[in-house]
């Protein structure tokens, strides 16, 4: 039988997932200077991705100079007039902002126009100090810092930038506004991962009682417990062990079903590879159907399910994996036998055709209750075409 500790580990060494999830563990603000924010993000990138960033940064610097030939120093930039703040006095709260997307920063530099620079949204956490925290405008702020330090080669402690200064320090309110503002035209839209992070930080840092956010945080607990972590391709770590890049399924399921799904994924992947997208789609659908059909799912059930998946198709739902090859052959055999035509039919590597095969296979091999096939397709695999 497969075995995992309750922390989702097979050993004692700290995993990448644990390191990545550690950013959620603090219940306090995570304050970073602009340089620290850039360096920490850059240094976490895989080496091959760093080389891409290096090349694109040099290209962005050249394009900036081409588009702004009359700007010889930072203060030559005709930025919007608002309150002024010393660049170095503006810090970034990592729990209030999405993860830094370096490629978006470079795009801002490549397409830089002074009239597009919106003042950075800040508040003063301590009214006795000239230090400001940015709650929106992180990417613009980092772009301005790169322009100052890498293009004009100036000291950011001597430069001023425009800011909109808010008197409030109600972080929960600003966090909600951050999500609203970044849904507007002209702003870099928030991805699912960005909204997810804000919900988790909102509960753990701001003690938000928003029911949707509280539910997301409960799901995050299961993700962490079983050694997984949510991410996106834009962060360059989607190939790390335990990476989950599809939040759609996490968002659809209830808290208990997410817990079942995470335990299954930890066991089936052995925490040695990322979670494949079709694996998320298929198994989230499976556990959702278990819930709807009243099937009792416990640790023993999940352990047996993962063992069957590993034994029969290496728990591999990748497009060219054993599962889809076998299911495709079963579909075409069924279609040829029932359609009365020579056309072999079109097989979809999605639950519409994958779920009928999965359900019948598990009826044969699991020895435990399985949900009914809810696919609208008439496809039913022959028993001889199963594993």
Description:
- The structure is a single chain.
- With 387 residues, this protein is of the alpha/beta class.
- It has 3 domains: 1-26 and 186-275, no CATH class; 28-169, no CATH class; 322-385, no CATH class.
- The protein is elongated.
- The strands form 2 sheets. Strands 1-3-5-4-6-2 form a 6-stranded mixed sheet. Strands 7-8 form a two-stranded parallel ribbon.
- It has 14 helices and 8 strands.
- β4 (120-123) and β5 (132-136) form a beta hairpin.
Identify the quaternary structure here. single chain
Based on secondary structure, the structural category is alpha/beta
Contiguous low-pLDDT stretches (5 residues minimum) are: none
Radius of gyration, in angstroms, nearest whole number: 25 Å
Number of H- or I-type helical stretches: 14
Strand order of the largest sheet: 1-3-5-4-6-2
Distance between the termini: 20 Å
User: Number of domains in the coordinates?
Assistant: 3
What secondary-structure arrangement, pairings included, does this model have?
Layout: H1 16-21, E1 31-32, H2 34-43, H3 47-67, E2 83-86, E3 90-93, H4 102-110, E4 120-123, E5 132-136, H5 138-151, E6 160-166, H6 171-181, H7 192-204, H8 211-225, E7 229-230, E8 243-244, H9 247-252, H10 255-269, H11 277-292, H12 299-313, H13 322-338, H14 351-365
């Amino acid at each position: 039988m497969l075995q995992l500790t309750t922390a989702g580990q097979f050993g004692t060494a700290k995993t990448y997932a644990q390191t990545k999830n550690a950013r959620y563990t603090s219940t306090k603000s995570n304050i970073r200077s602009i340089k620290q924010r850039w360096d920490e993000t850059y240094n976490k990138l895989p080496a091959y991705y760093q080389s891409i960033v290096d090349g694109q940064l040099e290209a962005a610097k050249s394009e900036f100079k081409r588009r702004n030939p009359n700007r010889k120093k930072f203060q030559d930039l005709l930025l919007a007039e608002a309150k002024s703040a010393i660049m170095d006095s503006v810090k970034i709260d990592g729990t209030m902002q999405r993860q830094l997307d370096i490629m978006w920063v470079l795009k801002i530099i490549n397409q830089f126009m002074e009239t597009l620079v919106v003042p950075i949204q800040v508040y003063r956490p301590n009214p006795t100090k000239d230090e400001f925290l940015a709650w929106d405008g992180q990417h613009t702020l980092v772009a301005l810092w790169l322009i100052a330090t890498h293009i004009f080669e100036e000291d950011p402690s001597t430069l001023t930038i425009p800011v909109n200064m808010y008197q409030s320090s109600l972080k929960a309110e600003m966090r909600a506004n951050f999500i609203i503002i970044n849904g507007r035209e002209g702003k870099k839209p928030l991805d699912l991962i960005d909204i997810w992070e804000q919900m988790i930080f909102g509960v753990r840092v701001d003690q938000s009682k928003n029911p949707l956010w509280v539910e997301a945080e409960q799901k995050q607990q299961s993700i962490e417990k079983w050694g997984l972590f949510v991410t996106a391709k834009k962060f360059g770590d989607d190939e790390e062990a335990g990476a989950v890049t599809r939040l759609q399924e996490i968002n659809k399921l209830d808290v208990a079903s997410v817990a079942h799904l995470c335990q299954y994924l930890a066991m089936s992947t052995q925490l040695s590879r990322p979670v494949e997208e079709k694996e998320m789609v298929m198994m989230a659908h499976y556990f959702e159907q278990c819930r709807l059909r009243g099937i009792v799912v416990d640790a023993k059930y999940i352990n047996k399910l993962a063992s069957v998946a590993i034994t029969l198709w290496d728990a591999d739902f990748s497009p060219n994996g054993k599962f889809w090859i076998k299911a495709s052959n079963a579909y075409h055999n069924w279609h040829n036998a029932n359609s009365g035509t020579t056309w072999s039919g079109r097989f979809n590597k999605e639950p519409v055709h994958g779920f009928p095969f999965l359900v019948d296979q598990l009826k044969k091999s699991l020895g435990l209750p399985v949900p009914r096939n809810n696919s609208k397709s008439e496809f039913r695999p022959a028993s001889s075409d199963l594993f």
